[in-house]
Amino acid sequence: MTTQDYGTVPPPPAGPPEPPPGAGPAELLDHAEQLLEHHDAQERPEDAGNAWQRCREALLRARDLLENEAAGADPAALARARFLLGLTLSVGYWQASAGHAEAYGVSERLGVRSTAAGLLALARATLPQDTPAYATACVRHGLLLHDRFEGDDAEDDGEGEGEGPHAVGGADARDDDLDEAVLAFDEGVPLLDEAPHPGLLVAYGCALADRYDRDRAPDDLGGAAALLGAVLDELRPPGWEPAEAGAGSWVDAADQLEIEARVRLVTLLQASDDPADAEQAERQLELLAATVPDGHPTRIFVCGHLVDVYREREGGVRPEERPAYLARLRELYRLLDAGSSHLPRVAALLGAALAERVGQSGSRYMPTAENEEATVLLREALAGLAEDDELRLPGHAVLGCLLNRCHDFDPTAYDNEEALLHLERAVDLCPPDDPMRGDLLNQLAHATIVRDDRSPTDLEGVDRTIALLNEMMKVPSDTPGFGSQAHGAYAAALSQRHALSNSSDDLDASIRHLTAAFRQTAVDDVNRVVYLQNLAIALYRRYQTGGDLQDLTTATRYMREVTAVLDGVDPRVTADLHLVVRNRVLLEQALAGLQFMLAFTGGSKAGMLAAVATMRRLQESCDEDAPELLPLEADLGLMLLVVSFFGGTWQERLEGLVLMTESVDALPEDHPERSRLLLRTAGAVLMTAVSPFNRRGVESAEKMLREVIDTVSPDSQEGLRAAGLYANVFYARFLHARAPADADRAVEVARTALGRLEGRAPSPVGTLLTNVLADALRAREAPGDRENARRTGVAGLREAATVVLLQVAAEPALQMARNAADRALQIARWCLADGDLAGAVEAMELGRGQVLHASTTTADVPALLRETGREDLAEEWEGGARAPVVTDLAALLDGPGSLLGGLGEGAELPLPDDLRQRVLTALARSRAGSALMAPPAPGEIGAALRRADADALVYLLPPGGGGGSGGTAVVVTREGEVATVGFGLMRKDGLDVLEAYREAHRHRQDVLDRTDDPEVHTAAHARWRSALEELCDWAGAVVMAPLARSPLLRAAGPQPRLVLVPFGVLGGIPWHAALLSSGLRHGGRPVRAVERMTLSYAASARQLHEVLGRPRLPLDAGPVIVGNPDGTLPGATTEARQIRSALYPRGLLLGRVRGASGPGTPAEVLTALPSRTGPGASVLHLACHARPSGSSPLDACLSLAPPGEEQPDGQLTVREILRQARGRPAAAPGGLVVLDACVSDHTAGDFDESLTLSTAFLAAGATGVVGSRWEVPDGLTGLMMYVFHDRLRAGSPPVRALREAQLWLLDPGREVPGGMPPAVADILNDGDPAALEVWAAFACQGH
């Protein structure tokens, strides 16, 4: 047998001596064993390799000798030789595999393994099984077979990140290698004399694990896990934890054996379906992560598998595991090669994990270094991921959401378009039933809204956003905050839609969504503040659209709250407050603007100046290049301009114009505020350029308006207002140059804009457009223009009247009504000039008593709503489906402290109740609602006069615009005919007597309020009395005498019965006291109008018509007498007691009167009016003080008894009485209210609204009211009141009874009525009962 060549034999080294030449097999085998022992003792690979080669040579010689002996060879010796040679070759193979092939002289490593395996197989077959050699041969054979099965000789594919450090199947592997290896281990391990080496047990366990991977035999799983676990427990006892001191230093680093064992145990356990095995695998991975040295290839395996473990948990990565999860991802990303196919996936997971950390430091929006890193990683991942990779959807989603949040924080640094791109891609990839779809649609809608909010010009685009939100609500998310964010997104989209459509429905829906978003947002969430800010803006827009001043008031309060949050008024809001703080200047500017508007509508110059001061402070705080400076200065300029018309200077006006024009000139064309500021500036320039006409100014305004019109939606508020001003440009030009083309263009522009408002609710902008169209038609005077101008002018008045009706409270209604009166007179004069008398009546009625009408107009609302098909609103109005509303909005809005701080999560905001506006808007769009807006026609007025037993209703009109035109009376007879009476002596430049009286009255009232000095009182009274005498002389000569001489009234008989409706400054005159004759022909006694005619008054024909439609309660049905409730009028105590005892013995007595049933509080007095719970008093006599109005007629009040110590104020104001009026039943009968209180039927201004305590009681359900025009002495007043009630008891209606009482006082031969108590009759001796200031103070309205 030839000798196999295993390489060159090295020279003999030190060690066991070489056997002598010719040594036999036994000697050679012994020598080989010695060399193996010598080999094991060597430290240097070269020395060990030399010993191994000598051993191998000896064994080859021994084997050759034995095999040459053939049959004569000793079987045991041959078996021993083969065993030792196989063992030696296996040692050489392992050393060569460990990198020592050169030292061992091994050039064919796999050949050595193959030969060794074959020799050990022969040894196992020939060695006795009870010998240690047999056991060794088995385990060595098993190691080689398993090694060949594993194929660690295979080429590395460069990946391996997920497979661990082994691969299956070597180049020379056989199908039975694994089974034979396990069999060899099974046979050999139990026979070993010593404890098996850990490496052997690891190999044994790995072999069983490999077979389990193949066959899934549970016994193999258990056996492998037991073997590997035992080895690992021996290497590192159970419960071991990494030493803290060694963190990062690898002092506890595992060796390769431990690493291989744990890796194999992990892969084995992960293949099991038992949850306990999965937990054990996770524990082993954690130990690997703690012990495998940094840079070891196995760390890729460990990190990758741990990442999978965290991700695959139910519910995803646990919060407590997120730091470890992030750390493993970071390590994976660092360890993987740049070209690895796994790198994009790891980048995607790492980027998503970093993005999730946004907000964990207290902010959900503020960009951090981790945000930046996440953005970079996700972009890299999406660039490398396959199109069908499952991580592409979350990658696009997370990056889009991250960019969305960062853009909210800093719009200039983060691209909203990129966020949109990724969110759109994510939505495309997301299945319809995916739980994240709702969140993605929410984010996409938000990003779209943010993009479009810069300049919304595409209504279809906004509708697509709303469609996204509708789809989102079909797949709602359970993500915290989803509901509030969804409402916020809806609100923003609908707000954009309103900006383009000018639809009140869009704006109302936006407000409803904002309130829902506010309610559902946590109290410490900054979005709660943002929603309040947006609500303020939305309510201001609704004010601009509908004119409800409650909206403006509430918007101002909300914005004040938002700015207060910046100063820490609500300590619960801390996180992300920078989102509000960064806009501090803009917020304070917005608040100043709202406060200015509120002050302007209320005529408060002090309020306007305070807002100007705020704006100047903000202007000084801004850097010259601050982006908010130009819009701020433009708004400041407008304020200065407006203030200049309230007693300001021309310097302020000039500064305002300069600021506005220079600011808009400097604004970039794409600035989001440019259109708004251009529109304001154009309006200001136009206002100052038309009178006197300034061509350059008008051209400048035209240019600005043209830009606005070309930029904004024609249906938007800005577009419509721009159209109105644009029409005014051409109207002003026509008035200046009389070019017909200018008039034509004004008409065309106004008509086109009005066409866009067709079918919409009445609004201030509609009034503006209607007015300019009417003016242009009237000025143009083409065929048919005069009639069209009148018709259009009346339509504008109806529009304005409807806007007043839409007001929820009386104060805003009054402020909205103030502008209508002068316009109504103008349109009425057009009608009178053209002979359209019915049109004149309609115009005058539309400009009169609108606030009173607003308080009483809703009686038939439910029926009208049902006629219109709005059963839902009818039920809500009646209370069936109406949610609770804030009953005292003003108290909440004006209350102390923080509005936000006082409202917990889920609380309702104090909002203006928009039910009235929604209802009247719906009716205004329908034919059924036209009855609410239309005043009574002459025929209806005539019918009312017949019910009142009156002959005519007389409108008294002051002189027109020119000094040469006189005043006019428009008379409507009981037959419904209309005629006019001219007052040639009444000239506008001759009304000084009126102003003198008003000034004397104001002075007297002021003296009475501020001093107790009797001399001062006497002087003021004398001045006032003189002015009153002159006024009555003028009224008789100029108005009442010509009126009485007119054929129209003469036809009514010698004592005509007239109802007077005086307009403008004529409203403050006691016409019944007008001097008709000096009396020279009547025994020297003057003759007053009350002696020749029966006169009553009305705020309007409409109110008279309404009052006459109420049944009148019998006098004895329930009289209430109130006397001296505040304790300041002793005479009123006597008066009340005497009237009650002598005339109404069964009446209810209130006040500071002996025997009274109550103190006479405001609540007790309001109870005496018709309500849902009772008919009210048949007679309500109020003997008390009245306080005249201050800045508003709504502030006029009765001084009653205070409700209690906590409420020392016992005032009952006109405002509160009108509030009561809105709740009364339509058909409720009413009684008579007698106000002998001072100044109960007087107003210092707003004459055409006739808002007094008297008219307020009529609105609240009275059928008649007697009130006083000025302060009267309580003694003589008590006398007159007794006579008045005596006449009532005798059967005279209130108007006639009052006249009879006044005539009795005027009559020098008066007789004391029978039954008058002596205490009352004695008053005749206390003064002159015929004095003008006594009897003329009182007037009657109503029945």
Please characterize this protein's 3D structure.
This protein has 1343 residues and is mostly helical. Among the domains are: 1-104; 583-666, no CATH class; 938-1097, no CATH class; 1117-1342, Rossmann fold (3-Layer(aba) Sandwich), CATH 3.40.50. The protein has 54 helices and 16 strands. The chain is elongated, with a radius of gyration of 51 Å. 51% of the residues are buried. It comes from Streptomyces microflavus.
Annotation keywords:
single chain, 1343 residues, mainly alpha, six-stranded mixed beta sheet, five-stranded mixed beta sheet, 54 helices, 16 strands, 59% helix, elongated, disordered N terminus, CHAT domain-containing protein, CHAT_dom
Task: Describe how the helices and strands are arranged.
Elements: H1 25-40, H2 45-68, H3 75-104, H4 109-126, H5 132-150, H6 177-188, H7 198-215, H8 218-235, H9 256-270, H10 275-291, H11 298-311, H12 322-335, H13 343-356, H14 369-384, H15 392-409, H16 416-429, H17 437-453, H18 459-474, H19 482-501, H20 504-520, H21 526-546, H22 549-565, H23 578-581, H24 584-601, H25 605-621, H26 629-644, H27 650-666, H28 674-689, H29 695-711, H30 717-737, H31 740-756, H32 764-780, H33 785-805, H34 810-833, H35 837-846, H36 850-856, H37 861-868, H38 871-878, H39 889-893, H40 915-924, H41 930-933, H42 938-947, E1 952-957, E2 966-973, E3 978-987, H43 992-1010, H44 1014-1045, H45 1047-1050, E4 1057-1062, E5 1075-1077, E6 1087-1088, E7 1094-1097, H46 1101-1108, E8 1120-1123, H47 1130-1143, E9 1148-1151, H48 1162-1167, E10 1179-1183, E11 1185-1187, E12 1197-1199, E13 1211-1213, H49 1214-1221, E14 1232-1235, H50 1253-1259, E15 1264-1268, H51 1274-1289, H52 1294-1306, H53 1318-1321, H54 1332-1335, E16 1338-1342
Parallel strand pairs: 1-4, 4-7, 8-9, 8-10, 10-14, 14-15
Antiparallel strand pairs: 1-2, 2-3, 5-6, 11-12, 12-13, 15-16
Helix pairs in contact: 1-2, 1-3, 2-3, 3-4, 3-5, 4-5, 5-6, 5-7, 6-7, 7-8, 7-9, 8-9, 9-10, 10-11, 11-12, 12-13, 13-14, 13-15, 14-15, 15-16, 15-17, 16-17, 17-18, 17-19, 18-19, 19-20, 20-21, 21-22, 22-24, 24-25, 25-26, 26-27, 26-28, 27-28, 28-29, 28-30, 29-30, 30-31, 30-32, 31-32, ...
Pfam family, one: CHAT
Biased composition (Pro residues): 9-23
Domain CHAT: 1033-1342
